[in-house]
Amino acid sequence: xxxxxxxxxxxxxxxxxxxxxxxxxxxVRHSVxxxxxxxxxxxxxxxxxxxxxxxxxxxxxxxxxLSRQYSQEKLDKKREDRIWFIKHEQLxxxxxxxxxxxxxxxKRLFNSNFICRAIxxxxxxEQIITMLESHHFTKKHRxxxxxxxxxxSLSSVSxxxxxxxxxxxxxx
Length: 172
What we know:
Immunoglobulin-like, Ig-like domain-containing protein, 2 domains, 6% helix, Ig-like_fold, 11 strands, four-stranded antiparallel beta sheet, Ig-like_dom_sf, Ig-like_dom
């Protein structure tokens, strides 16, 4: 301490920066008719304009702005037949979470890109997420059986399920 005394001041620092957009996944795999949520986190200051865009392929650079049509605020809540909608949530002063909800994936969306883009006066950032088709194959099991003879009794056991033929017939 000095003889004059002490003085303290507080300053608020407002660091401004272009958007940084990131997602935990760069591709999503689903099947036709699945529901999916694609999420992105956006860090920026000042607040960015956040948009979801759709590009059918990398060859065509044409982007469809989904945000203009499908943002949560613009949707009629009674419509059950919509394919997708978008929601933005501010988590703190410089972070947002944005989600694209797709209710039932149509086949035409596979092998295409969804772009989460954020823009403010300092620049822009984006994350591209590719939608790929995942095939859910149902395995078709053939009934194979082995025959063993023990003291003149015949037993047939399925090598696929481990059950006897009589047990399998009862399950049908």
